[in-house]
């Protein structure tokens, strides 16, 4: 989930006298959101993604209309949207990425395993489970679960997909879920906010968060909003909105089917909890 730490050196160039110029990029007549137009279930140009709903909530609390700059996530996304001054906030961004300044996190989620509810892998909740042996497993290349699958001796089982593609023409998560349903894959290991909402309405599939991985890279991440470096007042304003309206944000996420977990990646966070 975390994007490459490109442009980190450029952050220092935006200090001092440049800070005022950066702050001046923010619009005050609209909530200008940087978003992917085809990143279902997160953001969609038709407004149906859960990040669209959160943007509408933030815009409502600010008394501003929401206006989007659309650009496919991947190489150049931040540079050509947020950093170019075309928009002022990315609604979902992993904590700790240096390409943006992070707000306080507003949810935590985890990678998990998608299986058929009536299949032989329905009880699997860790990637070291012997039941996964000799099963074809879909995974996004380069993500933390790929490392743990390899550590468990399942490298030969992995079927890799790229995530940062133009999802107007490619659908890696949808492809993996379809192959789990058809039996071409025994399971797929996917980031919860991508898989959970797509699995929620499907009577044949289930999503199980990976909360028991004892070794390897962590499977959970805290998600923030991203703003430009040095826009401290804007960050503080968003932090205040997140704090005061966390229950409403949680309700949107739960309704969408995003698996929410505690901040330490140990347990599911129930609705209203």
TrEMBL record:
Instruction: Name the keywords, alphabetized.
Output: Signal
Q: Respond yes or no to whether keyword Nuclease is given for this record.
A: no
Q: Give the signal peptide as a residue range, or say none if absent.
A: 1-19
- Source domain of life is Bacteria
For this protein, the record's InterPro entries field holds: Quinoprotein_dehydrogenase, Solute-binding_3/MltF_N
Ranges for domain Solute-binding protein family 3/N-terminal: 30-255
Q: Sorted alphabetically, which Pfam families does this protein's record hold?
A: SBP_bac_3
Cytoplasm found in the keyword field = no
Instruction: Extract the PANTHER family matched here.
Output: ARGININE-BINDING EXTRACELLULAR PROTEIN ARTP, MEMBRANE-BOUND LYTIC MUREIN TRANSGLYCOSYLASE F
Instruction: From the Swiss-Prot or TrEMBL record, give the protein name.
Output: Amino acid ABC transporter substrate-binding protein (PAAT family)
Native source species: Paracoccus lutimaris
Q: Print the organism lineage.
A: Bacteria, Pseudomonadati, Pseudomonadota, Alphaproteobacteria, Rhodobacterales
């Amino acid at each position: 989930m975390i994007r490459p730490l490109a442009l980190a050196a450029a952050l220092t160039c935006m200090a001092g006298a440049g800070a005022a110029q950066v702050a001046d990029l923010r619009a005050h007549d609209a909530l200008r959101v940087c978003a992917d137009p085809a990143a279902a279930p997160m953001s969609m140009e038709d407004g149906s993604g859960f990040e669209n709903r959160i943007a509408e909530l933030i815009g409502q609390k600010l008394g501003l209309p929401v206006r989007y700059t659309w650009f496919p996530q991947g190489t150049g996304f931040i540079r050509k949207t947020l950093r170019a001054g075309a928009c002022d906030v990315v609604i979902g961004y992993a904590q700790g990425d240096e390409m943006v300044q992070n707000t306080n996190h507003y949810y935590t989620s985890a990678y998990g395993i998608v299986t058929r509810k009536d299949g032989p892998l329905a009880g699997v909740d860790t990637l070291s489970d012997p039941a996964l042996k000799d099963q074809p497993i879909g995974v996004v290349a380069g993500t933390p679960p790929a490392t743990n699958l390899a550590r468990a001796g399942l490298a030969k089982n992995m079927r890799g997909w790229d995530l940062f593609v133009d999802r107007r023409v490619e659908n890696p998560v949808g492809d993996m879920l379809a192959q789990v349903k058809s039996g071409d894959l025994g399971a797929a290991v996917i980031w919860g906010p991508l898989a959970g909402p797509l699995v929620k309405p499907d009577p044949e599939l289930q999503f199980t968060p990976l909360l028991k991985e004892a070794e390897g890279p962590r499977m959970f991440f805290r998600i923030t909003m991203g703003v430009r470096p040095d826009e401290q007042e804007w960050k503080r304003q968003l932090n205040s909105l997140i704090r005061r309206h966390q229950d409403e944000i949680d309700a949107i996420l739960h309704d969408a089917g995003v698996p929410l977990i505690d901040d330490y990646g140990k347990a599911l966070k129930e609705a209203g909890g």
